[in-house]
């Protein structure tokens, strides 16, 4: 496929650039008046219109040639933090939240993660696959071209395995890269409410070996938070996961400064996610670390909790990514366009920074930036063409409306 007359080809980073640290986040190379050639599912070449040879033009039949006049071409959004396998939404908690109940109060009253775990227990693998597929199709239509998906609503060996098998089926059925994360340490199930050591033993002695045997997960996540998993419990779980080759991705500092960032960095976590609550020690810890700070502004928006200190992290030379956190409790939205807008409006990132955080750094947070997240020759041809837009900044500026007009996955238009 040949796309010509592109107003701006966004994110033409050098191929060897695999992540953007600190102030580099503002570097978003855009090629104006450009063309791009996609072949065999990959980006074959690109350049400015004056460099497009007659030979290339004549090779492409009309149906394989698209003019993107007035439009921008972006690399697909890379959403590195989601929980899209769940049995049912939780609108009943929405009303409670509006009436003033906090996330912690709802969880303590038997809502929250345990509510989703109860609902998931009775759902079949097929039902979960169908509903997660519908969510994923919606996300793809909104421009997402790579995604990480967590378990964590099973909270028993059988149900966690059921969730991970659903994620495996999604990997096989969808034309985008998908990473799977074991999040059994999401909450203590009712039966282990007073036996934390017993649940940790269940995870380390039964679940992890079973997950490894079927090769069902790429990462291990822990909700390290007051009332959920403590620092020493997180430490024990991450050490056990490492023995099975699972690297950490931590839910850290969502509700309090929990020490989750430090324990994650100590275990060489790929990312520490949330960080709505930060202090100087968190910034210092991430400033020289390869662990990515993944911020989830849609969660702050929905729960009414603080927005992460994105500027502080960028100024401290940390690596900042943005993701949706799509889940039924704290973020019932998988729209990365809204994340880019919130990244600008609430996290005070410039449009170039927010776009990089949702593409190349999002890919890095899934260890996929060698393959996706920017426009470079040889990378996977997952991208989208916008509607006509006056400028790049129009995308985050026009929040709540999608500017994504055509989605291309592996070099082909997505009609799903
Ligand atoms: N905080 C932990 N996990 C999810 C919320 C899960 C839920 O409420 O169902 C999150 O990332 O926000
Ligand atoms: Zn989450």
Automatic annotation (TrEMBL):
UniProt pathway: Amino-acid degradation; L-histidine degradation into L-glutamate; N-formimidoyl-L-glutamate from L-histidine: step 3/3
Keywords: Cytoplasm, Histidine metabolism, Hydrolase, Iron, Metal-binding, Zinc
UniProt domain Amidohydrolase-related: residue ranges: 72-413
Compartment(s): Cytoplasm
Chain's role: Catalyzes the hydrolytic cleavage of the carbon-nitrogen bond in imidazolone-5-propanoate to yield N-formimidoyl-L-glutamate. It is the third step in the universal histidine degradation pathway.
Family the UniProt entry places it in: Belongs to the metallo-dependent hydrolases superfamily. HutI family.
Protein name from the UniProt record: Imidazolonepropionase
Gene: hutI
């Amino acid at each position: 496929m040949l796309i010509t007359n592109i107003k701006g080809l966004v994110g033409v980073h050098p191929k060897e650039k695999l992540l953007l640290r600190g102030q580099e986040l503002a570097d978003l190379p855009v090629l104006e008046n450009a063309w791009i050639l996609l072949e065999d599912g990959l980006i074959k070449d690109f350049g400015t219109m004056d460099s497009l040879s007659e030979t290339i033009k004549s090779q492409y039949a009309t149906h394989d040639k698209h003019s993107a006049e007035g439009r921008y071409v972006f690399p697909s959004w890379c959403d590195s933090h989601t929980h899209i396998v769940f049995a049912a939404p939780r609108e009943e908690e929405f009303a409670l939240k509006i009436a003033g109940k906090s996330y912690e109060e709802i969880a303590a009253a038997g809502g929250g993660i345990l509510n989703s775990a109860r609902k998931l227990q009775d759902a079949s693998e097929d039902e979960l696959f169908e509903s997660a597929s519908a969510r994923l199709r919606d996300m793809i239509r909104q421009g997402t071209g790579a995604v990480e998906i967590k378990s964590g609503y099973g909270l028993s060996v059988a149900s966690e395995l059921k969730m991970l098998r659903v994620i495996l089926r999604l990997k096989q059925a969808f034309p985008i890269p998908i990473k799977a994360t074991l999040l059994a340490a999401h909450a203590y199930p009712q039966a282990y409410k007073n036996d934390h050591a017993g649940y940790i033993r269940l995870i380390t002695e039964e679940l992890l070996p079973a997950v490894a045997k079927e090769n069902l997960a790429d990462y291990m996540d822990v909700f390290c938070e007051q009332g959920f998993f403590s620092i020493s419990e997180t430490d024990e779980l991450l050490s056990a996961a490492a023995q099975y080759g699972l690297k950490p991705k931590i839910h850290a500092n969502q509700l309090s400064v929990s020490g989750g960032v430090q324990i994650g960095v100590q275990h060489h976590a790929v990312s520490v996610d949330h960080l709505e609550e930060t202090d100087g020690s968190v910034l210092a810890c991430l400033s020289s670390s390869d662990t990515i700070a993944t911020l989830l502004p849609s969660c702050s928006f929905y729960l009414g909790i603080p927005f992460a200190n994105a500027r502080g992290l960028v100024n401290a030379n940390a690596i900042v990514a943005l993701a949706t956190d799509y889940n039924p409790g704290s973020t019932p939205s998988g729209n990365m366009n809204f994340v880019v807008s919130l990244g600008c409006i609430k996290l005070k990132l410039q449009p170039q920074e927010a776009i990089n955080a949702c593409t190349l750094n999002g890919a890095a947070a899934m260890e996929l930036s060698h393959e996706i997240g920017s426009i470079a020759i040889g990378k996977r041809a997952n991208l989208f063409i916008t509607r006509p837009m006056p400028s790049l900044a129009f995308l985050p500026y026009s929040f709540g409306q999608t500017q994504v007009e055509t989605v291309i996955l592996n070099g082909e238009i997505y009609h799903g």
